[in-house]
Every structure is written in C-alpha cells, then in structure tokens.
Amino acid sequence: MWTQLTVCLCFLALSCQAQDRSATLRRANNDFTGRCQYTFTVDSPAETSCPPAGAGGPEIEGVKSRLTLLEALVSRLLGERGEAEAVALAGEAGLQTAEEMSQLQQDKEQLNRQVQDLQRRLEELTLETEQLREKPCNQPQPPRLPTQDGDPAFQFGSGVFQEMKAEVSEVPAPPQIQQGQNRNGTGCGILVSVHEPVTHRKADGITGKYGAWFQDPEPIGPPYGAKTVWRIDAVGKEVKQLFAYEDMEQLTRGFPMKVILLPEAVESTGATVYRGSLYYQRRRSRTLIRYDLTSESLAARLDLPHAGFHGQHPYSWGGYTDIDLAVDERGLWAIYSTSKAKGAIVVSQLNPETLEVRRSWETNIRKNMVANGFVICGRLYTLASYSLPNTTINYMFDTDTSESKAIGIPFHNRYHYNSMIDYNPASKRLYAWDNYHMVTYDIQLANTDNSS
Question: Quick check: 22 and 42 in contact, CB under 8 A?
C-alpha cells in the first residue's frame, strides 16, 4: 500500500513539475484511528492551459502583422477594381456623349440644308414674280364657237345635246340683263342672279368669326378713297377697333394702314360706310352713331325710334343683329323691327347727316325667319339661311310699291355661317362675312321701267 502511495506521489510530483510546479503537498494530522492523511493542491487544467502573462508575444505579433498585410492587400485590390469600374463608366458616358454630339451635328447639317433649299426656292419665286410683272399681259383669244358641221353636240340625237338643253332650260336668261348702267344712268334694276363667292381673306383669331367689312361707294376724298377697305371683327364685349386697308391687296396680305379706336362700342355686324363716315349701332342700345373718318370724331348720334335692340328682334342666326344698316343707290337705310310691328321687318330711309328717319315701310317678312338682308335700288332682299351651303334669296320688298313677294335666287354660303351681307352700289357687289372669311359676290340686275 505504501509502495502504491509512493508511486502516486511521484507521479503527482512529476505532473506538478510539468505543470510549472503549480501543485503542493501537505501532511495532515493523524485521525482518531492512527492513520496518516496527506493533502495536495493542483491548478485546474483550464488555468494551466492558458499561457502566462507575457507568453506567446512574438507569435501573436506575427499574426497581427500578417493580418495587417492581408487587410492592406485586400484594400488595394478593391481600390484598383473601383478605379477600373469608374474608368469604364466614364468611358461609356464619353462614348454616349460623343454619339449625341454626332447626332446633333447631323441634325444641324440637315436643318442647314433645308434652310438653304427654302432660301433658294424663295429666290426662284421672287425672280419668277418679277418676270411675271415685267411680262406684258396677253389677252386670251375669244373661244371659237363650235359649228353644227362635224360637232356631235349639235346633233339632235346625241346625249350631249340633251344635257345642254336641260341645263339651259333650268335657268332661263331673263330679258334685258343689266350689264352696265340703264338708260336712267343710275345702274338700278331688279336682282336676277348672284355669282359664286370670291374669298379675299380669312380672319386670324376667334374675334373674327363674325364681322363686317365694306368699301365706301361715295368717298369724299383723301386720305380715304373708293379703294380703301374697312373691317370690324365683331366678337368681343367691347368692339371698338376699325381697321383700314389701302386696298384689297393689302387686306389680302393682312397689312392695315391704320387702326382707329371708336368712341363707343359696336353692336354686332350691322355697320356700314357711306360718304366718308362709319355708321353703326352703339352696344346695348338703339342709338345710331355717325363717326367721321377724316376727322376721327363723332359727327352725330340719335336713337332709332321704337327699334328693338340687343336680341329683341335679331336675324335667325342671332348675334344681336337687331339693327342692320345698309347703303344703296338711294342712300342710307336701316333694317330692323319694333314692338308695334311684332317682329316684322321695318325698313327706314335715313338722313345720312343727322340720322333722322325720312320714311319707313313695314313689311310682312318676319325678321327672325330670315338670315340677313340688304337693299338694292330701294328694294329689300332677304336671305333664307345663314348656314346651308346652297340656299336662296327668298323675299323682295319694293319700297316704290310697298309690296313684297317670294323669290328664289340661288345663293352659296361657301363656309356655312354667313353673319353679314352688304351691297355696294359702286362696284355692284355683295360683301359678306362667312365664318371668318371675307367674300364678295358679283350680281346681275335686270332693267325695269320704273327703276330710279
């Protein structure tokens, strides 16, 4: 037993020496049985496995230095990759910018070529215009009328002859068609036909959907003459501008010679020009105004007795066309209605200086049933429709006989909204405002024995 104990102690001593002599042996007192007891203390394995303070320093420092080098290498690699990506992105952006610059340069060259082509075309047109102006105007030879020999149209059995015969029989030529002045020297007569409209200009903006335009049939002298064209755009709350054009060509080109600001606003499209003055209805009233165009001042103003105004008795298209002023060979007229006439048209001849009524005639033509009206040689004519492309002048009232009758003269509303018609006794034309467009109509008059 003691031998075994000695071996164990030796083993423990060696173990403790191997453990940096961390174990200790101590003898205890004998117990009550007489046995000897020994105790010893050994450091725990966990504590002995940990290196003492200051142990392993070089190895740890080596590991740290290697980790530091590894981190530096990784950072360097990542930095080189970022720079490469930045360079690649910059290259792509530069390539895209270069492509856009190239495309812009191509577009610029194409636009320059188009501008050069347009300039060359403009020069060609200018040269052609000059050549046409210098070239003498050759009168065309009158057409040679076909003869019955060898022309199938004159053969009775041909279809061409039948079609011509039907067409001529549809519109018979009236006797004594007016071609110039009649024997009384007034150029008066009965209206028998209206030609196709001739368009002179289209208004630029919405204010020109309705309007009035005219030329003075009896101008009094400079600065305005018979060629001067006057125009009013009638859309707006305060219509006060009167445009003056030197002639028809300047109107077509859109170059007014002057714009006059009127003292009172204009109502609708019933204005007219006569003997150097503008005659019009003041807005929202039955007041007539005479405005002297030479002095640019108000020359006269007077209420039209009992006349309806501002939508009481308009034409069928509306537009506050209660009072319509007109001019013919006999002077200045007003076309309107009154409460006494109960909507029937009243036509009155006015004094052009004072605007006083000289004489009035009440007709049996309902004003709101016709689209417009004008006076030729003392006869009132009315238009059936303002919008139908193919309509008629449907009534005539003769102030000489105080009689009216239904007629059916074809009339063409080319632009389908005719808001104004005026007659010019000097040019023997109708002036109309058709849906932004300023148009004229040539007419034909037939001589009558009682024309004056």
Answer: yes
Q: What are phi and psi of 307, to 5 degrees?
A: -75, 140
Q: Is residue 289 within 8 Å of residue 323, measured between CB atoms?
A: no
What is the tens place of the pLDDT at every residue in 96-107?
778 888 888 888
Q: Which amino acid type is present at position 224?
A: Y
DSSP string, 196-216: --EEEEE-SSGGGSSEEEEE-
Q: pLDDT for 238-273, tens place per residue?
A: 999 999 999 999 999 999 999 999 999 999 999 999
Question: Can you tell me the distance from the alpha carbon of 177 to that of 106, in angstroms, rounded to the nearest whole number?
Answer: 67
Contact present, 439 and 197 (Cβ < 8 Å): yes
Q: Answer yes or no: are the C-beta atoms of 244 and 272 closer than 8 Å.
A: no
CA-CA-CA-CA torsion sign (151, 155, 157, 161): positive
pLDDT in tens, 361-419: 999 999 999 999 999 999 999 999 999 999 999 999 999 999 999 999 999 999 999 99
Distance CA 170, CA 134 (A): 45
Residues 6 or more apart whose Cβ sits within 8 Å of residue 221: 276, 294
Q: Which residues have C-beta within 8 Å of that of residue 361, sequence separation ≥ 6?
A: 346, 347, 348, 397, 399, 402
Asked if residue 391 lies in contact with residue 414, where contact means CB atoms within 8 angstroms, the answer is no
**pLDDT confidence of 324, banded at 50, 70, 90?**
very high
Residue type, 361: W
Residue 430's SS3 state is: strand
H or E element, residue 280? strand 277-281
Q: Are 408 and 164 in contact (CB under 8 A)?
A: no
How many Å apart are CA 336 and CA 434, to the nearest integer?
A: 21
